[in-house]
Design brief:
By secondary structure, the protein is an alpha+beta fold. The chain has helices at 3-14, 26-35, 41-54, 58-63, 66-73, 80-95, 104-107, 115-126, 135-144, 154-167, 173-186, 205-208, 269-276, 335-344, and strands at 225-236, 240-242, 244-245, 256-257, 260-263, 287-291, 297-300, 304-315, 322-324. The protein is 41% helix and 13% strand. The strands form 3 sheets. Strands 1, 5, 6, 7 and 8 form a 5-stranded mixed β-sheet that branches. Belongs to the Nth/MutY family.
Length: 349
Amino acid sequence: MNFTKTIIHWYSINKRSLPWRETQNPYKIWLSEIILQQTQVKQGLPYYEAFVSKYPTIYNLAKAPESDVLKLWQGLGYYSRARNLHATAKHIVNELQGEFPNTYNQIIKLKGVGDYTASAIASICFNEVTAVVDGNVYRVLSRYFNIDTPINSSQGAKEFKALAQELIDKKQPATFNQAIMEFGAKQCTPKNPDCTNCPLNENCLALSKQNIDQLPVKIKAAKAQKKHFNFLVFISDDGKTILEKREGKGIWQNLYQFPLIETEKSISEKSLRNTLKNNSLLSNQKFSLTLYNSKPIIHKLSHQHLYTNFWIITVKTLNTNTINISNIHTYPVPILIGNFIESFNFDFV
């Protein structure tokens, strides 16, 4: 059995109709690949369509304020992708005269672009013979060839890249790359793959050894850190609140949030009230304090779990960094904050 021909034949019958498969425009392929990093197709598709609609060319994206780009990205997470996307668009327009780089070695130099994304763009847009290796490809190759090298190790990255490069169809690299990714997404799924009806089942080594569920191997990540976040949702009598822009490095860089008090453990209303008495935002005013959620909202990030409480603080006036509550929906915020804003429904304040 020829692995490469079988994968491509399967793809010709089973591939999904997706808008980025109808173009070789490097801007749109790059956009789709950045969106689909850490994101499933069903979640990423509406974001892709929204970006293409609002920013149909790289010039449109480069001209946009970063806050607008972050707002449109809201809900996808891993916001560094959006910041890098915007920075790269400006770089291509301002430094490269709007011409997208057309080789793997040039593309991989772009901010936010790694081996996988550079290979995808180079092969799909410019027919360069460079293999993609994403989570789907790791899974297919590790099972078919029964490879137990950890995929998140430097050795694993080199081993699987070399194997994929050996297997790629030299005459149609774009088709092969998309085929093997689609095969992993639809056929060789993470859980309960349909091995009985798999066109590769006769030669799949993991299937013959009955260890499909054990592959691919991944080194366990460090245990996520537990943090306690207390967001202060100020509401003044004249319809003002406070949003602060997060500065410095971090996953929420340049996004907005309510004033935050981070504690080592869950804090009681009494303790928080005592803490707030000296808070400069209140200017020694009387205030009412209410906990919005009955139990902490757990927001899981890759490296930390946030145990979050939203405290509603009503006060007569606010004098520092205020915004009109009527404008709160225009600010780019983390999905944790965005979900609260939607559920609290400030429109009725």
